[in-house]
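Predict the assembly for these two chains.
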Amino acid sequence: MVSNHKETRKRNRMNIIVCVKHVPETAEVEVTIDETGKRIKTQDLVFDINEWDDYALEEAVLIKEKLGGSITAITMGPENADETLRKCLARGADKAIRLTDKAFEGSDAFATAKILQKAIQNLPFDLILTGAQAGDDGYAQVGAILAELLGIPHATMVKKIDVKEGIVRVNRELEGGLEQVMEIKLPAVLAIQTGINEPRYVSIMGVRKAREKELKVLSLADLGLEEKEVGELVSWITIEKMFLPPVEKEAEILTGGPDEVATKIVETLKARGLI
Amino acid sequence: MKELFVLAEHRQGELRDVTFEMLTKGREISQKINADLTAVLLGHSIKEFAKRLAEHAKKVMIIDDAKLESFNAETYQKVLSRLISEHKPLLTLIGHTGFGVDLAPSLATELNVPLATDCIDLDFEAERLVVIRQVYGGKVNVKAVLRKSEKYIVTLRPATFEAQEVPAVGGEIVEVASPLSEDITYKRFLEYVQPPAGEVDITAADIIVAVGRGIKESDNMPMIEKLAETLGGVLACSRPVVDKGWLPSDRQVGTSGKTVKPKLYVAVGISGAFQHVSGMKNSDLVIAINKDSKAPIFRVADYGVVEDLFKVVPTLTDRVSKEKSG
């Protein structure tokens, strides 16, 4: 077979959609539950792109740099989620779409995937990337549900991507560090695991360029959806209450400043013959 | 009679622990709601597994097909959607594992059956299926209810329910013909890739100093390395440190890394999400240093220090060093 290099390159151009979520950063702060008992207090928390989505975005940019194509970042959320979309635009996305409506509130992973499907189904795409999960609710569902609704294949927990002609070869992370190599037909949805790449920092140039890029806002009606098709009504799961995990075992907290604490630890280690 | 399915998970010729954890939880629920417990086993040349499962479940449904030899969400989904549609189990339990997360959401979507993932408990309360899950990296628990349905799917977090030995049930083994006729169309399994063996085997160490997200910059790593060295231990870490490329993956403790059981485990700047804790909770002595007093790591630690690690660690290294030389 005679291959035409130019033709191949053109065919390999990838239209990529990245689904992102604007979430509070909670890894290193104390989290408290608000008076509704169904949410956490977020007013003092810093919001940013979901950690897994950050890697998905970077992967999209890497693929675009290699093969050419376009990146559209999509999120569902209130106005402040534009911060995350602006970040995507500054890092290399070409367009951004925010899906927002009062009726979307209370949507679980299934309802969210349904809304995303409506927004995505008429866009051109070869690849859809999502984070493997979100740092807030941790369902780890949206990518695979979205794929099923769109009638295309998926792979989750993806640690490596190699795009080939009409297919993609991925490594999926399993327990104990083992990886499973799968080959999947395009178009496909890949849910990205952290550590797949090194997300770049936003450049000043990127921020400047991002201001000129398109950020579209779409509502329930814009998507051709009805209230009864979204939100809590169609969700699989509804939160009844949040509570702090019961304490089964409590650590003895050593107090008294670094010096005193260090002394206490050394005494403990000595008593146990560890030093 | 109501029926409850447990999907047996196996990998590279071994039944996974999560299978027996699910059977234990499944048995408890099936007794409560008066349902039959069925283990569902998909694979190829898996008769030995079926015998073991029959000790735990009233029925073992076995689907033997060369196309099911290695886990592939596409083939598994085709078989399971058929079985669930035919047998209509009230509840299907699947492990919240690398396999389960690839399978359950698309399966539930195809069947239009409500799904709850990564559950740490579940129960039927007044005809409703209620689950307990963790959110925000294990800092908060959620009680949630599933939309009323005739069928449900739940993925269970591994290493959460203790697998119990029971007198052999002597369950019936039923072979079901594989519904897979056409070739696999979308997804193909190619191979497993083993993680490369590193220069240090952290599972053999008596003393481990593990570092997490709290270290902030790679430039701060030598400070922790020095503590590990002074204690005569090895340096390990939680996931974010490997993700950032500051330590190789063979130093990672947790579900996707290594499981360790040293005499001393010092956790520095590690919040203690489930994924990490499951890899170190059986250590003899755990000392945790973290500035968030509510960090989940303090629930598995023997001693806790609620302080800025950058103040505590150098002082501690210095003290240990003096003790050893004096």
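The helical segments of chain A are 5-12, 51-67, 82-91, 109-120, 142-150, 204-212, 257-271. Residues 16 and 71 of chain A are 5 Å apart (CA to CA).
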